[in-house]
Design brief:
148 residues, alpha+beta, Nuclear Transport Factor 2, Chain: A, 4 helices, 30% helix, Nuclear transport factor 2 family protein
Length: 148
């Protein structure tokens, strides 16, 4: 593939991937898991790393997305609002990783912050999320409001 075609293809892939990421967080805010699940590979895995009550780091067991998608879909009075910024993407024709800072709010109340890392694979010209890992903490958080 010549250089111009490769650049156009990469730009198109980059826009498609960012639209997927946007759908994930819009789906969380609207409690619409179908906005999220359509972008998940059937073998997707999710993990979190954070601190336990004694201050030790703890990595959760890798799980599929079913529990999280069910929680997103449950009717709730409050809005789950994950605000993201500082996107960094690595991309080739079949594999992408998107890293971003986030602050999670329940309605307007701050809950926690960290970093998300989404890994996506391109199968038959369709990008799918194959792995999500995030860090979680409640102190020393940056958030969009403090960055202004």
């Amino acid at each position: 593939m010549n250089s111009i075609k490769a650049q156009i293809s990469q730009k198109s892939d980059s826009l498609a991937i960012m639209a997927i990421i946007s759908d994930v967080f819009d789906g969380m805010r609207s409690s619409d898991s179908s906005m999220i699940s359509k972008h998940m590979h059937q073998d997707v895995k999710m993990q979190s790393i954070g601190y336990d009550k004694s201050g030790d780091t703890k990595l959760t067991r890798a799980t599929n997305a079913d529990g999280w998608l069910n929680a997103v879909a449950q009717p709730k009075k409050q809005v789950w609002d994950e605000r993201t910024w500082n996107y960094q993407m690595q991309l080739n024709e079949m594999l992408a990783n998107v890293w971003m800072d986030y602050a999670f709010y329940v309605d307007e109340n701050f809950s926690h912050c960290g970093v998300n890392s989404f890994t996506l694979v391109k199968l038959n010209d369709i990008w799918k999320i194959i792995y999500i890992i995030d860090t979680r903490k409640q102190e020393d958080c940056k958030n969009p409001e403090t960055l202004k």
